[in-house]
Automatic annotation (TrEMBL):
GO terms for cellular component: membrane. InterPro entries: AA-permease/SLC12A_dom (IPR004841), Amino_acid_permease_CS (IPR004840). This is GABA permease. Keywords: Amino-acid transport, Membrane, Transmembrane, Transmembrane helix, Transport.
Amino acid sequence: MSSTPEPAPPGEPQTSGLKQGLKQRHMNLIALGGVIGAGLFVGSGVVIQSAGPAAVVSFLIAGVITILIMRMLAEMTVARPALGSFYIYAREALGKRAGFAVGWMYWYFFVIVVAVEAVAGGRILQLWLPDIPLWILSLGLLLILTATNMASARSYGEFEYWFSSIKVVAIVVFLFLGALYLFGIWPGSDGGVGNLVSHGGFAPMGTGAVLAAVVPCVGFYTGAEIVTIAAAESAEPKKAIAKAMRSIIFRVVLFYVGSVFVVVAVKSWDSPETGVSPYAAVLDVLGIPAVATIMNGIVLTAVLSCLNSALYTSSRMLFALTSNGDAPQAFTRLSRSGVPRRAIVAGTLVGYASVVAAYTSPDLIFQFLVNSYGAVALFVYLAIALAQVRLRKRIERENPGGLEMRMWLFPWLSYATIALMGTVILAMAFLPASRSQFWLSALTLALILICYQVRKRRGERPSVPPAGPAEDPTGGNREHRDEAPASATEPPRPS
């Protein structure tokens, strides 16, 4: 049975009944593991094939952009923790329309991630279970992790902690083995980094290809911001976010840039194996037995981690959207364990439908869904940067003692970050490889803005008419209810 939450202390987020079950160790791994997905282990091969060894530079540039965006977000979140994080900041800094768009774009992004990762996980399992149809395996993964998220925030945190731990350990071991090989310590190794220049030079495709590769690389880093969403369910949100954000910066760049450097230094960039599975190609050079099985296991872990986080993040963003009437009030209802189960179900229903689409229409409907969310997260990142510039002076007034985390070299570095994000987004519109993703993502944004206008003209607070009071089959006996309404839905006020 849910209870009435105590008012949040000044400077702390109003959680609207969400249980604070996430600990610092959960927050650290959520931040770190959120950016280590299947894109690194598999998708990086496409970037390497398009840019050559200079893909290291592409990942470095994308990493710097991500670090700057996360620093801007951390400044706002540590100074003013809020349920919904950047959705609230965008709403306050850029207006109600922008906040509505940011919140729903982010929700849409992660419900499509739910579908994509469920299908990807099913395909990996099918390598070991070839007789079971893909849709059954994908559906099974979706059901298992939905049940995990339904239990409690702590349950999500524990699963994510171990999933992320496996990914981090895998990358650390990979970097260690690669270093041994490059220094000539590994058995049979001559050492050296000759592969960086011996196959057409360091940038065989030219500088333009290196800059173009930054676009997909930025997408690979998406997920670091999840920790600011999870902050509402941590015991000490300000401390948790500050520590997690400080720890993530150099680790992420080290993991991405370092591991990609090992790949192109150990294995020639133009090798077919590098394009298909770059990390497996390196392990094969090192003579590691059962390479395919090891990498499939690691990639499956990354997929399950992303699926787990996508279910969590989409539900919390939908829950936060209700705080300002931007989503139906029915989604404010919580289970006894403080979990917004209806919001979780809403995200999984889209996932179920997408899994069916992947089975019945993989080349039409499912491909459309995949392309329609490709640039959405970048739109959100741009909104975060714009919001930070608009809110900086206001946040400073609210914190006369000084900000615990500050954006470096404000405002010039903030302006530079906005320019960089704008450049990446514009590049998507013109590069052949990403053009369809940009325009379909722009269509997604346009539809969301149309929904806002329709809601505004109708003069209704929620985006669709709110559900009426649910009929209580227990006759009002609260002891037997599975869900009870959250008691507070207002966003936090400045302290």
